[in-house]
Amino acid sequence: MVGIFLLTVSAGVFAGGTLETYPEIKNFFPALTRVGDIAGEPPAAPVYQQGKLLGYVFSTQAIAPIPAYSGKPINILVGLNLSGQITGLKIIEHHEPILLVGVSEKQLKEYIDQYQGVDIFDRVRVGAEKKAGSVGIDTISGATITVMVSNATIVNSARTVAARYGITRSRKSGKSSPVILTRQAPVAAEKELPANNPAETPLVSEAPDLERAWVTIWEGRAIEIGILVFALFLLTAILLFQDWIVRRPTLYEYLRNGYLLFTVFFIGGYALAQLSIVNVLTFVHAFVHDFRWETFALDPLIFILWVFVAFTLLLWGRGVYCGWLCPFGAMQELINMVARRFKVKQWEFPTMVHERLWAIKYVVLIALFGISLQSLSLAEYYAEIEPFKTTILRFDRAWPFVLYVVVLLMISIVNRKFYCKYICPLAAALIIPAQNRVFDWVRRRNECGKPCQVCADLCEVQAIAPTGEINKNECHYCLDCQVTYWNEYKCPPLVQERKKRERHIAVHSLSN
Fold first, then answer.
1. How does pLDDT run across 63-85, given as a tens digit for each residue?
2. Any bridge partners for residue 137, and if so which?
3. Which of 365, 416, 463, 468 would bridge 428 by S-S if both were Cys, CB 3.0 to 4.6 A apart?
């Protein structure tokens, strides 16, 4: 009786190591009584119920470590029963930067959860309707490469485990996609995982063809790409012909405000193409370790924006992106613009305090870069100092993130682009390569700052010193000062010239 009692107790106790590390396995196999160690080749842990094998659990990174957008694999815990069906999934770790600026963890989880119950011998069709012998999986808009890699990671690793441990299709209906199976019979009773024989067990772990994948993605987003490219050509034209445009204040105002609205609603709201400091950190890490252009080209709008930003950094400086193409920056500016229209009193820091506050964004950048050297995932976590993800997700996040963004936007009512001026680490990162810009087309006069302070008072980001010099590192290239520069009713030197000219004409008229 005692022996039977002890046997029953021992059979009912969950295994320590694997189950303690991954308690989710209980949800994958509710009837389990024991989980073995993750071992073998490919590594997998057998799951038992009173000595009867139920299936296997495994980590995808150990079997199909396919680099994703971040350059690192997405690690997913997967449960697979003996009928070839996925019984559960759990994301263990990922480093996808796009998930920090455009796609929520909830969306990623919901996407992964769709694979529960999928027969791995069916063809998995992402973003397509289900057909005979296939499974349709809904995609995530704005996370194409993440979706592709997740699909390949789950399916390839599951088929690899099935091939090695003798898991076969449980039903005869439906056409299966090609899977290489071993000659080993299914294991029906509890025993140690068999050793792998590479000669008998070819593994199925092919990564997506990035060279073909990015072309397919660009073709699928041709309309969005066309709109963005046209908008960037328009902005380039505005920059090249700025002197002609700013002499026509009404035209400039329409162009400027229209472009800011385009940036907020298309680049940010629709295309989810908000650049982030995480992109910079990811690029640096990829450049040092395993850089591939194809990986970054998998998100076409982000890729095109970065190419354009690199181009404008060398020609005009950091201000082109910060002043025209950043959705959150444009949102702040539009809010402040409306506030000024309603005569809301503005509050600015004294010049001495303001210039010292500029240093905060550099401190934030250095801190994030230092953290990324130790752990990129930890740096991504602290990069939440950027409000971009919450904004792009339309405030569908936990209340502390929403409160943070709301506070920043409220401050922008009385202090134009507060976040951009003092906190943004991306702005600090863009300033560094902009030191060697080619053009300096922001015109100044000898009278600027001595004694004229008109442009300094109007500058939205206080980038003009009381002495008249423009701090090019802090200039957002809004061109407001250039509108004033050419306006003979606002610029004091031009006002004097105009009055002299009018007096001369008046005298000449009287003399005649």
1. 988 777 666 788 999 999 999 99
2. 126
3. 365
